[in-house]
Write the structure tokens for this entry.
Amino acid sequence: MITMRSMEVGDIAENNLVRAGNYKQLYLIIPTLLVILCCLYLQKNFLNSDSAYLLYACNAMLHGGDYLHNFFETNPPLILYIYAPVCLLANIFDLNIIVVFKAYILLLCSLSVWVSYYIFTKIAKEPIIRYSVFFTLLLVTFLFPLMEFGQREHIAVLFITPYLFAAALTAQKNSLPKSRAILIGLFAGLGFSLKPFFLVPLCLCELYLILKSKKLFGWVRAETILILSVMISYLYTVFHFYPDYIHTILPLVRNYYYPGIHKPWQVLFGNYYCIYCLSIFCASWFLYKKNNLNELTKILILAQTGFITAYFLGGTTWFYHLLPAICYSILLITFLLTQTLLQWRNENRINFSLNFSVAMGIVFVFACSFMSNSQVNLIANENWPDFIVAIKLWLVLSLSIFATIEINKNKNLAMLATASAVISLLYFTTNNFFVNSAITGGDPLYLMLNYFVIGWLAINLIIIALALVKVNFNWIALPQKILVLIPFFYAVYFFPINYNIMQYQGMRSQNKLENSLIEYINNFPNTGGVYCFSVNNSSTCFPLVTYTHRDYSNRYPSFWWMNIITNDPLKKSVAIDTTNFINSIAEDLHRNHPQWIIIDAPGIARLARGFNIFKYFSTNKDFLAEWQHYKLKKQFYTKAYVIYEREKSAKA
């Protein structure tokens, strides 16, 4: 039985929240802090290779270049249109294009969060739900995609998210002012048009709205009219200004690019990030509630399902292909968890500040955990299975839930559970700090993040411990509620830690290699461009070209067609296309006379066994005539990159 005093405390806490102005200070402090962390991270690390190459292609397009002779990009030109303001500003005002690009994407992030949250305030009236969603929007737009900052999928999330909130508002039979609906439709049209697969979530959402309204033309709204207009206008520009992409690039992409990168469905399904999204999908059905917010829940589930489907249609396990699905999974599960905590508050009348502390604690630990390494790294080095780590994390966190949310008559047991949770979490976090210090070598940014997490957890747990002294417990609903939360804890807490460990270690290694290459190239006068021999990606020369301010002498970001050609080089159609490919390589070498040729040796070694790419290319007389002017200059990191320099005696 809950005492009248406990109910009074809960009511007072709720009234204080309303009088506090919906935590207006937190709406200012938290975004400022997140943006500062985001800027520090961006300043410290290189731009990802795909974004750097697309900036190069956009510049080439603005200077009159075309798909066949200047940049051989597999993506249609919409992403180049979106990048165009960056290149124009950098060229007109002689600004650093990298700084302009980062500022441009940060501006888009801010606009996306502002519009999305504006719409959400018309959907939800509960202050805590508003704050939780606002904070999560900041995470999925600013912090979580930092490794893929400015990628097409990141931009798709920025442009599509406001549309999803607007669709939920429409499902509630409400509408937006025409000016905002036009803005949302314009951005959504660009977002859904970035890749053909992105049409899947759009079709799912609009089909739901048609069924909801029970009208065949229930999809006709200001937003959808703008979306359709943007798509038609975009298709016209592609066919009119870039017919080479339709008639030449697309057939080659269909015959060589996608077959070369496609993975079996078992591999796609078994991808760790895919399992993450599917676990959230399953958890959402357990946490789903029929209330005035269920329309947004349905729209987020449809968006998540659509982008998971787009991932399978893409056929690759690259992380950024799942980025939209992951972002909407995070938003969905946080939205549902906050509703669950509020339901517990209303049913059990627990002290309101206690629930708020727990909900924000889970979300905030997630926010910082993906930017810090953890004890998981040590366990991984000992080859322990991932599920052992997941069980360990679940035990610690379920102990905290047991100690903070459920009401039990045994106060001593409650205090013991609280003490265990505090000790376990502090041990986990402090161990996280020392492991991270060893890995990062005292990196100030990551040390600051760890101090921040430790301090916040300590304050949070002290508040929990003090509040528990004054509450009673009830065993009845404990097992069911803890079981429901298991998928959430595994997905939201363990996943970002594991992801960060892998990404940050890879980033440090790549940054070290890129720094060495950049320093080496910058030691020589800028007398010629850079040419790259890479099979699988553009990271060999990007962002190296961007940061050394050299010309890129190759129309290809990588020789992605080699994966298919090496499997059956004697096939007649393959032989014809190969001749054209090699002729274009020889043409680029002859026309641009690059000073440096950088070879991605491991990538080339992964081709079919015994296949010698240079011997194969040398069957072309034009290529052989150009290649003979280059001599081996240097090898980096056990031949990871091999650099050839053009002989000074060679005629230009």
